[in-house]
């Protein structure tokens, strides 16, 4: 896979020198559990039940990332997107994945899933208003840092493949709140198999404008943000 190869290449310094993880960049370890906003979305058993492909809906939207000291991660995300032309058509997406991560010396993070991630899409205006689909994308965050917020304390800031920041996440616990770090559901069969469902999935993703952005980046975005790697020649 070209995209996977590109992510592996990003594990080398992108700007000619390694980042020194001093107090100005990272005042505490990334290990533990982080959550955005009102911190109602938290990884672990209170969010997803992979064996049943189900979710427990939190009272508000948000996202949560957990990291172990030995290289495992888990992500929980709940988003709602409105439709400006049809105000009552609000798309809700619950998203869960986990796997292994690498903190590259160039300051990026590469997250590789186990392959059992999934998400639930609810759209009252779609032909199929509620369905589950697999979600297994390697995710790249080109930069990250941790700083001290005057009110909420330690704050994790992640930057997506195109340099755009995610909402800041605040430290919930220094011990990661996670499900077991292994594959937790059978994904041998596709969660959605009919052409009609695939059409609805594509429509929901397009209306959602950001859900796929959680995952695989476009090659153009990668080449624009990460300079100095000489990747363009590899694509010719």
Structure description:
Residues 1-16 form the signal peptide. One of its GO terms (biological process) is 'de novo' protein folding. InterPro entries: Rot1. One of its GO terms (molecular function) is unfolded protein binding. Keywords: Signal. This protein is mainly beta and 236 residues long. It has one domain (2-235). The protein has three helices and twelve strands. The protein has helices at residues 2-9, 195-208, 219-225, and strands at residues 32-36, 48-49, 54-55, 62-67, 72-81, 91-103, 109-113, 118-122, 130-134, 139-149, 153-160, 169-173. It has an eight-stranded antiparallel beta barrel. A hairpin with a 4-residue loop joins β2 (48-49) and β3 (54-55). The longest helix has 14 residues, at 195-208. The two termini are 15 Å apart. Residues 1-17 and 190-236 have low confidence and may be disordered.
């Amino acid at each position: 896979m070209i995209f996977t190869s590109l992510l592996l290449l990003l594990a080398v310094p992108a700007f000619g020198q390694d980042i020194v993880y001093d107090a100005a960049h990272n005042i505490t370890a990334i290990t533990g559990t982080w959550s955005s906003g009102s911190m109602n979305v938290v990884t672990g058993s209170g969010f997803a039940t992979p064996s049943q492909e189900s979710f427990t809906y939190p009272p508000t939207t948000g996202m949560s990332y957990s990291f172990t000291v030995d290289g495992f991660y888990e992500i929980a995300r709940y988003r709602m997107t409105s439709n400006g032309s049809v105000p009552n058509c609000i798309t809700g997406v619950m998203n869960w994945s986990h796997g292994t991560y690498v903190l590259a010396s160039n300051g990026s993070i590469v997250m590789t899933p186990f392959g059992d991630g999934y998400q639930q899409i609810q759209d009252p205006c779609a032909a199929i208003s509620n369905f589950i689909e697999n979600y297994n994308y390697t995710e790249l965050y080109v930069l990250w840092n941790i700083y001290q917020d005057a009110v909420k304390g330690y704050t994790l800031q992640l930057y997506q493949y195109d340099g755009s920041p995610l909402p800041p996440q605040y430290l919930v616990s220094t011990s990661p709140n996670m499900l077991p770090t292994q594959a937790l559901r059978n994904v041998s069969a596709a969660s959605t198999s009919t052409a009609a469902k695939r059409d609805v999935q594509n429509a929901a993703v397009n209306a959602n404008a950001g859900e796929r952005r959680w995952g695989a980046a476009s090659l153009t975005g990668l080449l624009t943000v990460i300079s100095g790697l000489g990747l363009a020649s590899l694509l010719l």
